[in-house]
Specification:
Elements lengths: L1 H33 L7 H15 L6 H30 L3 H9 L19 H34 L8 H19 L3 E9 L2 E9 L10
Antiparallel strand pairs: 1-2
Length: 217
């Protein structure tokens, strides 16, 4: 009986810690979405998901703890849907917080604004930021397309199927980039096409600021 009670106390502490980490992760993502953080907290997110999976594999006998864990799991799943939706919007350039400042400049219907007070929808600085972002997206698109073309060519030479979707592969590559940036704390990732055991493969390599590959620790 003492061992069961000790286990219950330990599990309660673990659930407390899990709730705290979810709250911290929520704040980290809000900072990432608003631009205060440059790197997505994907490493912490994956670690939390692994802990949830570990608890799922160990059935809880205490009904109250089991109910509490289900609530925590549902809360994390709800946040994950929200985070994924925001990430997709960021990739498409349609995230609400990206448009917020520009929307503030828009006159409301019926507003009487003196001609001298009329300002451009975006400042020169904002236009420059938008231009750079668009250029970055275009470069990324070209880079993903180059990786895709080389991968398809390598698969063809290896006798593998080349019936692959560029959109699907681009989504997978973007996910790998986010995960590697979060894990290694780098701002750049390169992809290399290699052939191993007669099969073409894509390898993602984290790159340091000086341009050299970063070795896994």
């Amino acid at each position: 009986m003492a061992r069961i009670e000790k286990r219950d106390v330990s599990l309660n502490a673990q659930l407390d810690e899990m709730e705290h980490r979810i709250s911290l992760l929520k704040m980290q993502y809000e900072k990432y979405f608003t631009g205060l953080e440059k790197i997505e907290p994907l490493k912490d997110r994956e670690a939390l998901k692994r802990e949830v999976r570990d608890l799922l594999s160990d059935p809880m006998k205490n009904p109250a703890q089991r109910f509490r864990f289900q609530q925590i799991k549902a809360r994390l799943q709800s946040y994950e849907l929200y985070w994924t939706r925001n990430l997709v919007q960021m990739e498409r350039g349609t995230h609400p917080k990206m448009k917020f400042r520009a929307d503030l400049k828009l006159p409301k219907p019926g507003d009487a604004v003196p001609e001298a007070a009329v300002e451009p929808l975006m400042s020169a600085e904002q236009e420059e930021v938008l231009r750079r972002r668009q250029e970055l997206q275009e470069r990324e698109e070209r880079a993903y397309k180059m990786v895709f073309d080389k991968y398809i060519e390598a698969r063809g030479k290896c006798g593998q199927s080349t019936d692959l979707s560029f959109d699907t592969m681009r989504t997978v590559l973007r996910q790998q980039v986010r995960q590697i940036k979060s894990t290694f704390g780098v701002e750049s990732v390169k992809f290399k096409i290699s052939v191993e055991d007669g099969k073409a493969k894509v390898k993602a390599v984290p790159v340091q600021q000086d341009g050299t590959p970063k070795a896994a620790s």
